Amino acid sequence: MQDTLTLSNRELDLKHLWHGNLQHDGLEKNPPLEIDRADDVWVWDAEGHRYLDAMAGLWCVNVGYGRREIVDAVAGQMARMPYYPLSQSHGPAAQLAAQLTSLLPESLSRVFFLNSGSEAVETALKMARQYARLAHPGQNRYKIISRHRAYHGFTMGALSATGQVLRKQVFEPLVPGFLHVAPPDHYRCEFCSREPHCNLTCAEEFDRVIRMEGPESVAAVILEPAIGGGGVFPAPEGYLARAREICDRHGVLLILDEVITGFGRTGKLFGFEHGGVQPDILTVAKGLTSGYLPLAATVTTQRIFETLNREKGANAKFAQVSTFGGHPCSCAAGLANLNILTRERLWENSARVGSYLIDQLRALESPRIGEVRGYGLLVGLEMVSDGNRTPMPEGQIIQIQKKIREAGVLVGRNNDTVPGLCNVLTVSPPLTLTKDGADVIMRAIERGLS
Ligand SMILES: Cc1ncc(COP(=O)(O)O)c(C=O)c1O
Predict the structure, then answer these.
(1) How far is the CA of 17 from the centre of ligand 1 (A)?
(2) What are the pLDDT digits (tens) for 384-443?
(3) What is the CA(261)–ligand 1 centre distance, in A?
(4) Less CB within 10 Å around the terminal CB: N or C of the chain?
(5) In angstroms, rounded to a whole number, what is the distance separating the alpha carbons of residues 410 and 97?
(6) For residue 266, how far is its CA from the centre of ligand 1 (angstroms)?
(7) How many CB atoms are closer than 10 A to CB 22?
(8) Tens of pLDDT along 133-180?
């Protein structure tokens, strides 16, 4: 008889599912939560326990769960035309491209749709390499500079840009031509942690590495405006502007990876607004549909678009096709999602409730919290064992995370990133969170620490 007729979901999971980034040995005793339904900031497991989802799934359900408007838009599109590829065209993709660019600086006008953040990054890297070769004839610009601790995705190129050795080492050798510099981690910075503020030496590293490598070999710098999954490190004041200046000076493209920071997460619509800069290439995913359906996009300037399209000959186009990228139902979800986000101006709530939550967390004064970092509803708690900033061992973080969950709140952690520094608890709830919701998160964290 078929397993589905005789076994529970949990048994089927244990027998057949392969979860990402999870050691399956011993999973019987410690199974993942089976989440069964969701509404606004709340999720319920199959046994009926309710949790405040302070990770918005995986940093993505920005408008909250249960939005009928998105469901209806997707159902309508499914009935009208469930699928057509973008080797031709369709209305939902054209309209979403227009709506997305209307939220961005005028210079970012071209949208290439994909299915996931990893694919958006992969595409950005490929566009950057092709552009750099066409824009600088006679040079071979292919190197990409990224940062340690950053996360850019699981595919080979995006993983090569990722600065987290624990996610990479068993898959090496990765793609050649990727270099990493120090992240802006003022708390543990080798350049300036003894000074009251970041002195931007970490940003100067882009300049040093580009000069040492030879600018004529460098295609792009890739950054998250705030490193997210690596442990929540917002770019300090002046950092993004400095990076932009250095890239311009050396003819290097600036790719901003806003897969987490986009669509209100940081208290502004996009993370680059904090730094007053504009990227040459922008990658977005998660909050583009708030996770209701998979969708991502790589957005570029008209100049990059034209450069890749004006050449004649074999390379006279961007030679990449994605069967499902820009799926009409995903685009319909994206349109409805962006309507909600902009109508309710959710980035403003993110800023307001986020700063309340961060203030409350800083006021906790627990000796186990070394630093509370973040802006908007993107928050990291650097957990320590003592007054010397010794990172808390991972086993202890897992216990605290578990206790917070027992108190009814789901928070994340920066697991499997770099050795010895998987000690950050992360909070990234839906942007509809109220102050009461923030209090629920606070109380659960307090209980987790007690
Ligand atoms: C900054 C950033 N870039 C890229 C990705 C990859 O996105 P996906 O998991 O949709 O492939 C992530 C995922 O968390 C991310 O945080």
Answers:
(1) 22
(2) 999 999 999 999 999 999 999 999 999 999 999 999 999 999 999 999 999 999 999 999
(3) 10
(4) N
(5) 33
(6) 16
(7) 11
(8) 999 999 999 999 999 999 999 999 999 999 999 999 999 999 999 999
